[in-house]
Design a protein that fits this description.
It contains 8 helices and 5 strands; from the N terminus they run βαααβαβαβααβα. The protein is 35% helix and 13% strand. It has helices at residues 14-24, 35-39, 44-63, 77-85, 119-127, 153-167, 180-183, 213-216; strands at 2-3, 70-75, 102-108, 138-145, 189-194. α3 (44-63) crosses α4. The protein has one domain: Alpha/Beta hydrolase fold, catalytic domain (Rossmann fold, 3-Layer(aba) Sandwich). It has a 5-stranded parallel sheet with strand order 1-2-3-4-5. The model has no long low-confidence stretch (mean pLDDT 96).
Length: 222
C-alpha cells in the first residue's frame, strides 16, 4: 500500500505501484488523496481522513495477503503519517494499532524529524520516536541527495529555505526538500540514493522514476 506526499495525487504513483506489484506478485493500491484532502492536513481531522482510508485499504489488502501482512510505502508526508497507523494511542478520536498487519514500513524522502516541523509531525516523533515498533515491524528509510544544479530552477530556489526550516542548516545535503538527516529514520535500515530529487516537480530523477525504482523496490520483502 502506498500513501503519497503532500498535494501529489495517486496517478503520480502508478509506475511505483506497478514496480512493487511486479516484485511482490501481490496487488498494490495507492491511498486515494486529492489536493483538497492534502490541504486539510494542516489539521488533525485532515490527517484522520487519510489515515481512515489507509486503514480500510490496509485491512482489505491484509485479508488477501498470504502472510496476513502488508508492506507500507510512504512518500514524503505519507511516510510520517503511516507511523501513526502502527500505534495504540488515540489520535483525533481513533486508535489504529495496525502493526500486527504490517510487515515493512518503507519511507521515501519523509521529514521524520525536524527542528521546526509542524505540530502533527512532531507529535508522531514524540509518541513513536525512531523505529519504535522494530520488534514487530521492519522499518526502511530512503533519502535522496542531489546537487542544486541538478534541480529544476524553481526547486533550486526552495532548497536552502526548506533545509533551514527542517534542520536549521540551509547548506546540508538532501533531495531538494528534505535533508538526509530528517529522511533517515533513527533505528531503521537506511539507504541513500545519489542524484535523486524529492519529486518530479524538483528533478527529473525522483524516487518514483523508472531509473530509480530498481534501487529500492527489491529492498522490500517479497
Amino acid at each position: 500500500m502506498i500513501l503519497g506526499g503532500f498535494l501529489i495525487t495517486p496517478e503520480a504513483y502508478a509506475p511505483m505501484a506497478a514496480a512493487i506489484a511486479a516484485h511482490s506478485h501481490q496487488p498494490v493500491q495507492v491511498v486515494p488523496a486529492s489536493r483538497g484532502d492534502w490541504l486539510l492536513t494542516s489539521w488533525s481531522l485532515g490527517w484522520r481522513r487519510l489515515l481512515d482510508r489507509s486503514q480500510a485499504l490496509l485491512e482489505g489488502l491484509a485479508a488477501g495477503s498470504p502472510s496476513g501482512k502488508v508492506n507500507l510505502v510512504g512518500h514524503s508526508s505519507g511516510g510520517v503519517m503511516l507511523r501513526l497507523l502502527l500505534g495504540d494511542e488515540p489520535f483525533a478520536g481513533r486508535v489504529y494499532g495496525l502493526r500486527h498487519r504490517v510487515d515493512t514500513l518503507l519511507s521515501l524522502g519523509s521529514p521524520h524529524s525536524a527542528i521546526r516541523g509542524t505540530a502533527l509531525r512532531r507529535l508522531v516523533d514524540q509518541r513513536y520516536p525512531g523505529a519504535f515498533f522494530a520488534g514487530s515491524v521492519r522499518y526502511l528509510s530512503v533519502a535522496g541527495a542531489i546537487a542544486p544544479e541538478q534541480l529544476r530552477p524553481r526547486a533550486r530556489r526552495l532548497m536552502a529555505r526548506s533545509f533551514g526550516a527542517i534542520n536549521n542548516d540551509p547548506g546540508s545535503r538532501g533531495d531538494g526538500l528534505v535533508p538526509i538527516s530528517s529522511a533517515l529514520l533513527a533505528g531503521s535500515e537506511q539507504r541513500l540514493l545519489e542524484g535523486v530529487g524529492h519529486g518530479g516537480w524538483f528533478a527529473e530523477r525522483w524516487y518514483g522514476s523508472a531509473t530509480v525504482l530498481p534501487q529500492w523496490v527489491p529492498w522490500l520483502a517479497a
